[in-house]
Amino acid sequence: MPFSRSWGQAHGRAKTTSIFRSEIMSLVQLYIPSDVARFTVAQLGELGLIQFRDLNGEVSAFQRSFVNDVRRFDEIERKLRYLRSQIERNDVDIYDFLNEDFVRASRGPRDIDDMEEKINAHENRVLKLTAAYKNLQLKHLELLENKHVLQEVSSLFSEIAGRQQTANAQGAGRSSAGGSLSGGQDNVPLLGRTDSLSRHSIGSLDAARAGDVGFDVEAGGPVIGHDINVGFITGVISRDRISTLERVLWRSLRGNMFLNYVDIEEPINDPKLDEPVYKSAFIVFAHGESLRDRATKITEALGATLYHVDSNAERRQEELIETMSRLDDLQQILENNNAARINELTSVSEQINTWFTVVRKEKAIYHMLNLFNYDANRNCLIAEGWCATNDIPAIQSALYLATEDAGSNVPTVLQELRTTKEPPTFVRTNKFTDGFQNIVDAYGVPKAGEVNPGLFTCITFPFLFALMFGDLGHGFLMTLCAALLCIYEKKLVWLAKDESLRMFYTGRYIILLMGIFSMFTGFLYNDIFSRALGIFSSGWTWPTDKGGEGVTVEATKLNHTYPIGIDPAWHHAGNSLLFTNSYKMKMSIVLGVIHMTLGICLQVPNALYFKKRINILHVFIPQIIFLFSIFGYLLFAIIFKWCTDWYARDASGELTHISPPSLLNMLIYMFLSPGSVNESEKMFRGQAVLQTFLLLLALVCVPWMLLVKPLILRREHQKIISEGYGRISSHVRVSSEGDDIGGAIVVAEQEEMEEDDFDFADIMINQTIHTIEFCLNSISNTASYLRLWALSLAHAQLSEVLWTMTFLPTLKMSGSFQPVAIMGGFAVWFVLTFSILIGMEGLSAFLHALRLHWVEFNNKFYDGTGVKFEPFSFKAILDEVEE
Amino acid sequence: MKEIYFNADAGYLEGVVRGYRDGLITKPQYSNLTQCETMDDLKLQLATTDYAPFLQNEPSPISTSTLSARCTDALVAEFQYLQQNSAEPISKFLEYITYGYMIDNVVLLITGTLHERDTHDLLEKCHPLGFFDTMPALCVATTVQDLYNTVMVDSPLAGYFRECLSAEDLNELNIEIIRNTLYKAYLEDFYNYCMACGEPTASIMSEILNFESDRRTVNITINSFGTELSKDDRSKLYPRLGNMYPEAQTRLARVDDMDQVKAILEQYSEYKTMLLGVNLNASSGGVGGNELSLEDRFFIKEVDLNKEAFEQQFHLGVFYAWLRLKEQEIRNIVWVAECISQQQKDKINNYTPIY
Prior knowledge:
The structure holds 2 protein chains of 2 kinds.
Chain A: E1 25-33, H1 34-47, E2 50-52, H2 67-89, H3 100-103, H4 109-170, H5 187-196, E3 200-203, H6 207-218, E4 230-238, H7 242-252, E5 257-263, E6 268-270, E7 275-277, E8 279-287, H8 289-301, E9 305-307, H9 313-369, E10 373-375, E11 380-388, H10 392-406, E12 413-417, H11 431-443, H12 454-468, H13 472-487, H14 499-506, H15 508-525, E13 540-541, E14 556-557, H16 576-601, H17 603-609, H18 613-643, H19 663-672, H20 687-722, H21 760-784, H22 787-812, H23 818-857, H24 874-882
Helix pairs in contact in A: 1-9, 1-10, 2-4, 2-9, 4-6, 4-9, 7-8, 11-12, 12-15, 12-22, 12-23, 13-15, 13-23, 16-18, 16-21, 16-22, 17-18, 18-20, 18-21, 20-21, 22-23
Chain B: H1 2-22, H2 27-34, H3 39-46, H4 52-55, H5 64-84, H6 90-114, H7 119-125, H8 144-150, H9 158-161, H10 172-197, H11 201-224, H12 231-237, H13 247-252, H14 258-265, H15 269-275, H16 294-309, H17 317-341
C-alpha cells in the first residue's frame, strides 16, 4: 500500500524503548472464544498494556451484550456499600487486608457466584438483624419515653399538690367555692413556683382548678375533677417542636388548656432518624372530651408520641416499676442483638476490601467486554485495541495464561492490523521521568513518532530553574527535602492522596534535580544564603593600610584568577551589581540562544522520521541561518568580549584595546547603519563587512522561509493532478482471511482518510504567519531569556535583604541579650528563608522555567497534537475509585 | 449600577444555578431514556445524570414512585443548598418561591383531612419545599375560620389568607376556592416583590409570572365549567395580572365552553401559535402521536420562557426558572418511567424536552 504508511508494521525500524519518541504502536485484533473472554480481559487488565477501542459506538449503553453482568455487579456493589455503611456506623474496624489469591486474575465464574452468595447471605443477615434491632429500639424508645413521662408527671402532680396545700392555707374555701373561673390571684403562686423550679407551663385553666385536679388525684378520688370534666394527655415530643405545640394548642383550644413540659436531660436515640434527638415530656390539661380529642389530634400531627398515664399515684408508681423492669430486660436483649450484629459485621469487615476490589475488577471486565464485537455464529468475541509493538509478546503470554485459567484448549488469536489511523501516544516513563513527562503533557501530548521534548526537559528544566534560583544553601535545603521524599517514597504514598501535597509528591524527582542544579549554580554564583564562599584564594586583594567608615578603597588585581565561579571579592564590592548584572545578562542570552538552537535542530529528526525532506531544506536551514546570522553573531561577540582583556597594556603602558564596546549598540547599528562600524566600538578587523554579510544572509532567509515551501508543494500537487492520479478516500478492511478460525469474518469499517484537499491560499497564509512569527519571535524569545538574569538577580537581592534585615543585626549586638537575640533572629531568618525564598521564590522560578520550555523551546519544533495512550488497567481503575 | 454589585451577593449562587441548568437532561439523553426497556435500564441511564447519587443506593427493581421521590430529593437538595448559601435579597426571593409549595401543601392537607386520610401519610406526600412548622396542625381544622386562627395566622401565608375568610365551611368547592384565592394573592404579592427588585429581575419575572397567571386564569375558567361556581365568583379568582388582565378576563368570566375560551385566547399573538392543532378535550399526555393537550402546550410555552431567563445575567429570575425547568424534567422522567412500567411505549415521546 504505497499510499498509506503503516504504523503497525514497523519493519526494518528499530523498536526502541526510550522517551525520545513515543512507543511504536500496533493495532491488534483479538479473536477471543467466548468462554475464555472473561479470563482474557482479566489477564489483560492485570497487565495494563492494551487500550481497547469501542467497536459498538452506535449501540447505546443498555443494549450491549454484557449489560446484565454489569448490572449484576452494580447490585453487588450496592450491597457492599450498604454493608460498609453499616460497618462504619457501628465503628467496626475495616481490615486493611486483600486476599491476593482471590484478587488475582484466575478466579472462575464459580468463585464469583460463591462470593455473591456470601455477600447476599451477609446482607440478608445484617438486614434482618438491623431490622430486629430497630424494632427493639423502637420498643425501647417507647418504654424509655414512657418512663420519663411517668416520672415527670409524678413530680408534676406532687408539685401541684404541694401548691394546693399552700393555696389552701392562703385562702381556705376558695377551691370549694366551685372552682371559680376567675381565680386570678392563684396564678401567682403557681407561676412563681413554676419559675423557681425551672418548669415551664402555659395555660389559662385557672390554677385553682388545676389545684383541684391535683388534690383530687392525690386524694385518690375520681380520676377527673369532681365537678368539672378536666382530663389530661401526656406524651413526648422533640424539644424544638414544643413552642409550636404550645402556640397551636393555645390557639386551637382558645386558651382552655394548661400545658406543662419538662426537658428530658439526655438525648434519646430515635431509630427512625438514626441519630440522638433531644425531647421533652409534656402534659396537657384540657377541659372536656372534645377538646381533649382535638388536643390529641394536634399533638399527634405535630409528631408527638402519646402515653397513657394513670392519674392514680400508686398505680403510676406500679407502672413505673414495671416499665423500669421491662426496660432492663429490653436493654439486655438489645445488647445481645447488637453483639450479634457487630459479630456479623466484623466477619464482613475482614473480607469487604477484597470483595470491593474483586467486584470493581469484574465490573471493569464487563465494561470492556461491552466494547467488543460479538460474533454469535462462531461464539467468539472480536476485540480491537492499541498496544505497544514491544509489548505484544507480553500480551500473548497473558492470552496464553488466560486460556489456561479457563481450562480451554481453544486459544485466543492475536493479529496485527495494518491501519492508517493515528495511534495513541505511549511514552514509557518510569518514576523519574514521569514528572517531567507530565510537564510536557500539560502543554500537549506528543504526536506518535514526534520528538518528545520530555527527554530534554529532564535536564534543561532543572537547569534553567537553577539559573534563576542559584544559591548553594537554598539549593541544599531543597535537595534535602526532595531527597527525603524520594528515599521514603513508599511510606509517603499517602501524600499523593492530598490534593495540595500531591504536586510535591509526584514532582519529587523534579525538585531533587532542581535542588542539585541550584547547588551547582549557587556554587558558580558563589552564593550561600547570600554570603560568599571563599574556597579558593581570591584573585583580588584589598588594601590593608587605608580604610574606615565611608572611605572608598580599590582592590588590586593579583596575577591569578579565581579557578571556578565568581570571585568572592566581588561580593562586598560597591560595583558588584554592575559586574553580576552584566555577567548574568550575557549568560542568559548565550544559554537562551543555545536552548532555542536545540529546539530548531530537533526539527531535523522529526523531518527525517516523517520523511519530509522539504522541512529540512526549506524550513530548518533558513531558520537556523537566520538565527545564527543575528543572534549567533551576538553570541560570538559576547564570547569575544569575554575573552579579551580590555585593560591590557603594552610595554609602554598604553592601552592595547579600545574601551570595551557596547554590544547592544553594536546589534542596533548593525541594522541601522549597515556597512559601517564606529571606530571607537570596533572589536576586530573586517567587522563591518561581516556584519553586512550576515544582515544580507538573514534578509535572504525571509523570502526563502516564506515562499519556497508552498511553491514546491504546489508544483508537486500539480504534477500529481496532471498525471491523472486522485486520492482514494476510504477503504474497507478485510481481516482474518485464512487464519485458523477459518472463513472470512469481515469487519468492515469505514475509515476516513485524512482529507487531502490542496488549498494553496491556505498554505500560503499559514506560511506567512509562520514566517512572521519566527522572525519576530527570534527577537522576543531571546529577550525572554533575560528572565533568567532578572529572577536570579531578584533572588540574590532578596536573600541579601533578608540576611541583613533579620539575622545580621543580632550578630552585631553586644550584651548578655545577644544569645537570645541570635536565637530569635535565626528563627525569623530561617522561617522566612524557607517560606519566602525557597517556597515562593521557588514557585515563581518554576513557573518561569515552565514558560521558557513551553513557549520558547516547544514552539520551535513541537506539535503536541497527540492523544494519550490510556491502557485498560485494573490498577488505574482501582486508584480512580479510591479518590 | 446594580449590575456592578450583583455578583457580590449573587455571583456564586448564579454560577451554581447555571451549573445546575447545565446538568439538565438533554435531548440525546432523553432519547436514550425513551429507548429503555425496563426500569433497570432507566436507572442505568440516569446513573450518568445529576440524579445518580440519589438513585445508586436504591435496590433494584425501582418503582416509579421511589424514582419520583428520589428525583424530588435531588431537586430539594439543590434548592436547599441555594437557600443555605443565600443572603438578602436572594434569600427572600427563594423564600417567595417556596410559598407556592406551601399553598399546595395546605390544600393537600385540608383535602386529606376532609376525606379522613391518615395524617402521617398526608405529611409524607407534602412537598418538602413547602414545609412550615405549624403545618401538621392543619388536620384538626374543620372550618375556614378555625384554619386561619389556629394555623395560618403565623405562617408566611397569613396575609394571603385574609380573602378566603368569607367562606364558611370546608367542602370540595370551597377548598378549590381557597387554593385559587391563595394562589392569586401569592402571585400578586410575588409580582409586586419582583417589580420592587428593579430591572432586569422585574422584566424577566413579570414575563414569567404574567404567563403563569394567564395559565391559571384559563385553567380556572375551564375547570369551573359545570360546577356551582358563579360567574362573579369565578372572576374574583382570576389573578389581577397577566397579559389578559383585565379585558380578556372579564370576557373569560362569562364564557361557558371551550370554543369561546379558544376564541378569546386567539386574540393574543403569544397564545395563537400555541393553540394551533391543539386538542382541547384531550387530557395531559394525550392519546399519542402529535396531538397535545392545552396543558402540554402550556408546559412547552413555560419551558421556553424559563429558558429565555437564562439568556440574561444579573437577575434573580434564573433561580425561579431553574426550579421550574427542573420540575418539568422530573415530570418528564416520571412520565417516561410510567410509560415503561405500564408498557405504553407508544406514548413515551410525549414529554416536554428542555434542552
